[in-house]
C-alpha cells in the first residue's frame, strides 16, 4: 500500500476517534446497509422487467379493437393463435410452422456454436501455454461482441450476395456457372449470421469452466495412459459441463427471440416467433403480441429448466 | 506435459485461425467496401478508392437525420455506462453481506439476461402505453383537457429506452461484480479497518484502486452494449430512434455504400471505446499491482 494511503488512514483514524462522540456521525462513516445498496438495482428491475412482464401476461388476456385495448378478460388472442391448429394436423398451422422454423434455427445454431465454441475454448485453455497469449487471443475472440450486431449481420451481404465475393470467386474458378441462390436471404444465411454473432456466448463460459480444471487431473489421465481423445472425453468434457450449459442457455434464448438477424438475413421473408411479435407490435395488435410473448416465454423457460437441472449457475462465477 | 506440440495442437490452431477469419472477415469486407469509388456498388470489385460515401454520409442520409441519431446514441450510451457501473457496483457490494431477498433479486437479474429481448421490449412498451392512457384519463377526469392533449407520451430515450437498455447491461455488470469480489482478498480491507479506516475510506482508498481495472470493464460493457442495442430498445424507444435502430431500418432502403460508411464509422467508435478501455485497464492494473507491492 502506498505511503500516502497509510498517512491518510492514520489521519482519518484520529478523525474517527473524535467523531465517535455521540451525535457526530459523519457521512459514510457507517456502511450503508446491504439492502440499501442493492435497492437502486432492484428498483430498475422492478420497473423495467418484473412489472412489464406482469403487464404482458395481463394484456395477453385482454380484448382489442383496431384502435384500442379493451380491458376485458378473454382468451381471444390465444384462441386466434392456435385457431384450427389441431384440426389441421398433420398439416401445420402458421403458429406451429413459425415455432418449428424458430426451433430449427435454434437447434442448428446451438449445435454448430457448441462444437466450434468448445474447440476454440479448448485450444485457448489447454494448448496456448503463455498467459499473455491466452489473454490476447481471448480478446481477439471477444472484441466483436462489443461491436454492432446489425453491422456484423449486414457485413455478410457483400460476401454471400448474388454477386458477392463467394459467388463471383466460384464462377471465376469455373466451379459453378450461375450464382448460387441460397447463399443469401435463406435459412443458410440466417444460420451463418447467428453462428457468427453468438458463438462467443459459448466460448466465454466454456473457457471459464476449463480454466478451473485442475491441470493435475489432465496430467494424471496422461500418466495413466489415456490418449488425447480419452482425456478430452472422460475428463475435460465432464468438467466443462457447467460452461457448456450456461453457453447453451445463452445461445438458445437469444436465437429463440431473434427477429433482427432473421429479418435481415432472411430478406424479411422467413418467419420467426420474434418477428411475428415485432410485426404485431408494429400493427398495434398488442394482445396478440403479448399472447405470443407469453407462449415464447413459456417455451424458453421449459428449455432453461431442463438445462439448469444439470448445473447450479451461481457456483460458476 | 511434454514440450513437443502434439498433432492436435496444429489442427486446433488451424481451426482457431479459421474461426478468427470467420469472425473478422465480414467486418473487414464492409470497411474496405466503404472506401468504394463514386461509381462503385454494394459488392466487389472495388471501383477505385475514395471517401465519396463518407462525404455523402456527412451530408445526411435522405430523410433520416443520422447525425442526430448518432448524438442521441452517444448520450444514451454515456448515461447507461455511468448507471451500469454505479448500480452494479453498489449491488455487488451488497451481495458481500446478506440481505433479505438477495436470492430473489439474483434470479430476477439472471432472468432478465435470458428472457428474450423482444418480450422485455414489448412489456416496457405496453407499460408506458398503459401509463399514458392512465395519465390522460386522470387529466380528463380533472378537467384538464388541455394538458391531456399536450401530454403525448412518457415513452422516450431517457425513460423507457434507458430502462430497457439497463435490463440488458446491469446483469452483465452484476455478474462481473460477483466475479470481482469472489477473487478479492478481504485481508486488504481488514488491514485498512485495523488501521482505523471508515467503510467509505476503505472502499475509496483500498478496494476501489484494486478493482478499478474491472470497473472499467463494466463501463466498457455498459457503453458498447447500449451503443449497439437493438432488440430491447425496439419497442421501447419512443419517437426518436437510436443509431443502431436507424441502421436496422436503413438495411432495407439504402442501396449504396453509404450504409457501409456508416457501419465503418459506428465500428470505429466501438473500437475506439474498446481500446481506450483496454488500455486504461492495463494501466490501472499495473498501478494497483505496484501499489500492493510497495
SSE blueprint:
The complex is a heterodimer of chains A (317) and B (294).
Chain A: H1 3-19, H2 34-59, E1 63-64, E2 69-70, H3 76-81, H4 94-127, H5 131-142, H6 149-154, H7 157-160, H8 165-172, H9 187-211, H10 215-223, H11 228-239, H12 241-257, H13 260-265, H14 273-282, H15 286-308
Antiparallel strand pairs in A: 1-2
Chain B: H1 7-33, H2 52-58, H3 66-94, H4 102-114, H5 117-141, H6 145-151, H7 157-182, H8 186-194, H9 199-227, H10 243-253, H11 258-293
Helix pairs in contact in B: 2-11, 3-7, 3-9, 4-7, 5-6, 5-7, 7-9, 8-9, 9-11
Walk me through this protein's architecture:
- The complex is a heterodimer of chains A (317) and B (294).
- Chain A is mainly alpha-helical and 317 residues long.
- Chain A contains 15 helices and 2 strands.
- Chain A has helices at residues 3-19, 34-59, 76-81, 94-127, 131-142, 149-154, 157-160, 165-172, 187-211, 215-223, 228-239, 241-257, 260-265, 273-282, 286-308, and strands at residues 63-64, 69-70.
- In chain A, strands 1-2 form a two-stranded antiparallel sheet.
- In chain A, helix 4 (94-127) packs antiparallel against helix 12 and helix 10 packs antiparallel against helix 11.
- Chain B has 294 residues and is mainly alpha-helical.
- Chain B contains 11 helices and no strands.
- Chain B has helices spanning 7-33, 52-58, 66-94, 102-114, 117-141, 145-151, 157-182, 186-194, 199-227, 243-253, 258-293.
- The model of chain B has no long low-confidence stretch (mean pLDDT 87).
- Chains A and B meet through helix 1, helix 2, helix 4, helix 5 and helix 6 of A and helix 1, helix 3, helix 4, helix 5 and helix 7 of B.
Amino acid at each position: 500500500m502506498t505511503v500516502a494511503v497509510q498517512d491518510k488512514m492514520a489521519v482519518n483514524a484520529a478523525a474517527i476517534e473524535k467523531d465517535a462522540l455521540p451525535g457526530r456521525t459523519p457521512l459514510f462513516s457507517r456502511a450503508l446497509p446491504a439492502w440499501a445498496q442493492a435497492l437502486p438495482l432492484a428498483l430498475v428491475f422492478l420497473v423495467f422487467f418484473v412489472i412489464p412482464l406482469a403487464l404482458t401476461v395481463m394484456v395477453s388476456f385482454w380484448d382489442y379493437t383496431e384502435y384500442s385495448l379493451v380491458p376485458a378478460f378473454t382468451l381471444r388472442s390465444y384462441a386466434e393463435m392456435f385457431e384450427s391448429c389441431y384440426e389441421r394436423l398433420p398439416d401445420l398451422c402458421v403458429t406451429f410452422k413459425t415455432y418449428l422454423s424458430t426451433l430449427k434455427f435454434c437447434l442448428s445454431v446451438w449445435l454448430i456454436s457448441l462444437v466450434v465454441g468448445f474447440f476454440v475454448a479448448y485450444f485457448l485453455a489447454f494448448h496456448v501455454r503463455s498467459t499473455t497469449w491466452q489473454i490476447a487471443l481471448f480478446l481477439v475472440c471477444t472484441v466483436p461482441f462489443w461491436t454492432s450486431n446489425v453491422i456484423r449481420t449486414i457485413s455478410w451481404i457483400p460476401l454471400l450476395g448474388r454477386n458477392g465475393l463467394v459467388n463471383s470467386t466460384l464462377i471465376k474458378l469455373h466451379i459453378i456457372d450461375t450464382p448460387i441462390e441460397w447463399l443469401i436471404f435463406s435459412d443458410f444465411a440466417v444460420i451463418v449470421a447467428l453462428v457468427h454473432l453468438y458463438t462467443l456466448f459459448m466460448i466465454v463460459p466454456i473457457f471459464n469452466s476449463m480454466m478451473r480444471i485442475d491441470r493435475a487431473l489432465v496430467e494424471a489421465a496422461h500418466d495413466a495412459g489415456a490418449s488425447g481423445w480419452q482425456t478430452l472425453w472422460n475428463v475435460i468434457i465432464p468438467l466443462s459441463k457447467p460452461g457448456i450449459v450456461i453457453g447453451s442457455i445463452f445461445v438458445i434464448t437469444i436465437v429463440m427471440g431473434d427477429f433482427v438477424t432473421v429479418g435481415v438475413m432472411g430478406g424479411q421473408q422467413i418467419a420467426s416467433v420474434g418477428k411475428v411479435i415485432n410485426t404485431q407490435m408494429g400493427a398495434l395488435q398488442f394482445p396478440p403480441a403479448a399472447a405470443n410473448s407469453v407462449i415464447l416465454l413459456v417455451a424458453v423457460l421449459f428449455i432453461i429448466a431442463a438445462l439448469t437441472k444439470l448445473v447450479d449457475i451461481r457456483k460458476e462465477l | 506435459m511434454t514440450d513437443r506440440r502434439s498433432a492436435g495442437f496444429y489442427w486446433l490452431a488451424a481451426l482457431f485461425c479459421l474461426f478468427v477469419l470467420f469472425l473478422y472477415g465480414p467486418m473487414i469486407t464492409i470497411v474496405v467496401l466503404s472506401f468504394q469509388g463514386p461509381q462503385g456498388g454494394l459488392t466487389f470489385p472495388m471501383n477505385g478508392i475514395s471517401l465519396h460515401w463518407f462525404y455523402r454520409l456527412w451530408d445526411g442520409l435522405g430523410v433520416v437525420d443520422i447525425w442526430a441519431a448518432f448524438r442521441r446514441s452517444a448520450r444514451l450510451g454515456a448515461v447507461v455506462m455511468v448507471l451500469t457501473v454505479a448500480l452494479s457496483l453498489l449491488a455487488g457490494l451488497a451481495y458481500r453481506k446478506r440481505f433479505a431477498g438477495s436470492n430473489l433479486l439474483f434470479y430476477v437479474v439472471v432472468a432478465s439476461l435470458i428472457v428474450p429481448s423482444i418480450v422485455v421490449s414489448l412489456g416496457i412498451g405496453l407499460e408506458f402505453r398503459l401509463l399514458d392512457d392512465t395519465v390522460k384519463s386522470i387529466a380528463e377526469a380533472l378537467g384538464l383537457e388541455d394538458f391531456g392533449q399536450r401530454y403525448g407520451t412518457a415513452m422516450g430515450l431517457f425513460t423507457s429506452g434507458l430502462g430497457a437498455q439497463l435490463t440488458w447491461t446491469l446483469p452483465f455488470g452484476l455478474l462481473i461484480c460477483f466475479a470481482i469480489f469472489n477473487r478479492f482478498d478481504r485481508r486488504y480491507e481488514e488491514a485498512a479497518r485495523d488501521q482505523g479506516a471508515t467503510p467509505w475510506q476503505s472502499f475509496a482508498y483500498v478496494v476501489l484502486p484494486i478493482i478499478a481495472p474491472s470497473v472499467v470493464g463494466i463501463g466498457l460493457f455498459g457503453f458498447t452494449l447500449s451503443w449497439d442495442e437493438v432488440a430491447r430498445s425496439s419497442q421501447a424507444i419512443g419517437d426518436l430512434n437510436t443509431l443502431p435502430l436507424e441502421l436496422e431500418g436503413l438495411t432495407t432502403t439504402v442501396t449504396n455504400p453509404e450504409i457501409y460508411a456508416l457501419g465503418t464509422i459506428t465500428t470505429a467508435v466501438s473500437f475506439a471505446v474498446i481500446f481506450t478501455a483496454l488500455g486504461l485497464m492495463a494501466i490501472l492494473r499495473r498501478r494497483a499491482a505496484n501499489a500492493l507491492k510497495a
